[in-house]
Design a protein that fits this description.
About 30% of the residues lie in helices and about 35% in strands. By secondary structure, the chain is an alpha+beta fold. It folds into 2 domains: about 160 residues, Uncharacterised protein YcnI-like PF07987, DUF1775 (Immunoglobulin-like), CATH 2.60.40; about 50 residues. The strands form 3 sheets. Strands 6-7-4-10-11 form a 5-stranded antiparallel sheet, with no helix packed on it. Strands 1-3-8-5 form a 4-stranded antiparallel sheet, with no helix packed on it. Strands 2-12-9 form a 3-stranded mixed sheet, with no helix packed on it. The chain is globular and about 50 Å long.
């Protein structure tokens, strides 16, 4: 029987594979670099009217010979956030500024007349090649808009200030200095049901696992009994042969 011939890849083919792989890797790194090149907000979406959540502003250092020494986040004035609590960051001091609202926000606990205008972090530093997360906890997000734009000013130790304040326009490429933007999604009435779905799935999975375990246990007993029967027959045959 003749062996099937194996085709070898030519040097040119290997070179093509290497070039394609290098280009693909370069593309991934480039996109990753672009994602880390500006101040971003995490998570990047929340349901409208969400309460008791957190927002994290990730600030990377883009300079080679200077450290970030100040971060100033301006909160949206047209769709205000009434209050925030700041998560402490070692080495940094946070200052929360508020502004009086022209139109108070009506709540079940009364009218809110002030809202957050800025949160400023100073005193620490972000060295080149590093980033720092700055987190705030909010009381409630607005319900009358689809997005919130937080403009950020990043100050370096050499005096340079980078202004992350440009808003993304529909159908246009991302601006050079995009502002951190939070998307607000529609709050659905069945959100509780969806959150309960994983619990139901987990329960069903547990029941399925229990049933599987029982079946395997019964199968094991059957195999064991068959083994005993086979062993008994073997001994009986051996004795009969000796006699």
């Amino acid at each position: 029987m003749s062996a099937t011939p194996v085709r070898s890849i030519s040097r040119r083919g290997l070179r093509r594979v290497a070039v394609v792989g290098a280009l693909a890797t370069t593309g991934v790194l480039a996109s990753a670099g672009a994602a880390f090149a500006h101040v971003t907000i995490h998570p990047d979406s929340y349901p409208k009217g969400a309460s008791d959540g957190t927002l994290t502003f990730r600030v990377p250092n883009e300079e080679d010979n200077a450290s970030t020494t100040k971060v100033d986040i301006t909160f949206p004035a047209d769709h205000p956030i009434p209050s925030v609590l700041v998560t402490p960051v070692a080495g940094w001091t946070a200052q929360v500024k508020t502004v009086q609202l022209r139109t108070p926000i009506k709540t079940d606990d009364g009218n809110i007349t002030d809202a957050v205008s800025e949160v400023i972090w100073t005193g620490g530093k972000i060295d080149p090649g590093n980033y720092q997360d700055f987190t705030v906890a909010f009381g409630q997000l607005p319900t009358d808009t689809n997005q919130l734009v937080f403009k950020a000013l990043q100050t370096y130790s050499d005096g340079k200030i980078v202004r992350w304040i440009e808003e993304q326009q529909p159908g246009q490429p991302q601006p050079d200095n995009p502002a951190p933007t939070l998307t607000l999604t529609a709050a659905t009435p069945d959100s509780d049901a969806s959150s309960a779905a994983p619990k139901a799935s987990t329960t069903a999975s547990a029941k399925a696992s229990d049933s599987t375990a029982r079946i395997l246990g019964i199968a094991g007993l059957v195999v064991g009994l068959l083994g005993l029967v086979a062993g008994g027959l073997g001994l009986a045959r051996a004795r009969a042969a000796r006699q």
